[in-house]
Structure formats: C-alpha cells, structure tokens
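Take one record.
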Amino acid sequence: MDEFMQAAIDEAKTGLSEGGIPIGSVLVKNGKIVGRGHNKRVQEDNPILHGEMDCLNNAGRIGSYRDTVIYSTLMPCYMCAGTIVQFNIPKVVVGESVTFSGAREFMEAHGVEVVDLNLPACIRMMEDFIRQHPKLWNEDIGE
C-alpha cells in the first residue's frame, strides 16, 4: 500500500472512531505530507468540513499547489473537486469511487489527473458505514 494512501485511510479510521464519516485525505508536496484531515461534519457540526476540506485547512497557506498531490479515500464531491480545481492541484489519488462516483469528470475536464485505486479496504469501509448509517451518509452527500 502506498504510504500516502495509507495515511489517508488512517485519517478515515480516526474520523470513524470519533463518530464521524470515514473519509480521510492527505496533501503531499515534494514527497512529504504537508496536510492531513478527515470528514468532521458530525464532530464539528460543520456541513462543509469534508475530508479534503479539512486536509487543506490543516495544511494552511503553502503558496502554490501546482506541485502537490491530494489523496482521498473516496472520490471527491463537487464541492471538494471545485476547491481542487480552484487551487490548481494537478493530481488526485482516490481510494475508491464504487460507493460514490463523485466529480471525476468535472476534475478531469479542468485538467486534473485522477487516479482511482479501487481499493477493497476503502470500498469495504464505506459500504459498512453506509449500511450502518444510511441517514447520516445521505445527509453527507446531499440526498
């Protein structure tokens, strides 16, 4: 397993252990993690604190994002994809898109390289969560 995706998975597990939605993310620049985060919508009662948003917030101001890669355990939604496009993050590595197809086409249409690893561990984590907490999941994706 790629060390950066493993770090994102660890973030997702932290979110789950806090009673939240298990989606984690890390931002990598020059081969080092400069930000990490996880979905905290439940924990902080914040509707926009998705994993990628928390990760970028925790990274702080880093200047240009053109030489970064963002990792996420789940395909980013349109809100997170919009932020990725806005900051010119050139590459997104995703754990899976089976449980949520997200905004892949939007990101690719704006020049973002999207790599979907289709990892069984990420799929299983989300399938288990969705089965156990369908109301919370539907709230997270705006259903």
Summary: The first helix runs from residue 3 to 17. The mean pLDDT is 95. The CA atoms of residues 65 and 87 lie 6 Å apart.
